[in-house]
Design a protein that fits this description.
By secondary structure, the chain is mostly helical. Helices cover 72% and strands 0% of the residues.
Length: 155
Amino acid sequence: MPCPRPRWFRWWLFPLAGIVHFGDELFVGGGFYTWVTSIGGSRVSMARFASAILVALLSITIASWVGRKRYDWLLFALAAIFLTNALTHLVGSLGTHSYSPGTASGLVLWLPLGSAILYRGFSRNCAVVWCLGLAVGTALNMVILLLTMNLGRMP
């Protein structure tokens, strides 16, 4: 039996929030790719960063579509990625005393969406699937962070 979803949930909320967030990362404050360079990450071009964003958006779209009726762990993993990404942007902004592009959309869209999905799963006794999704999503976000910081060093 699948974990119940909030009545308001629609699978396309993840890709839609992704489009807004990735736009924030690309175009606000000089772009996340330049911010990463300024805090000691590798130098990366806008084209390479935009390519990575397209792959991420496609992955989010496919995962949310596949998880719309089944595979609850996928939705919980996406929710965990959204939640931890928003918090990572916030910590990055506070830690560097600068604006990490993506923080605004992360806090306004990704944090509430990720939190609401995870809260709903936690409160509905979906413990095993919820823990799997949370672990996978959090681990994936850490991998994404490391890749982003080193995107310019990759061939």
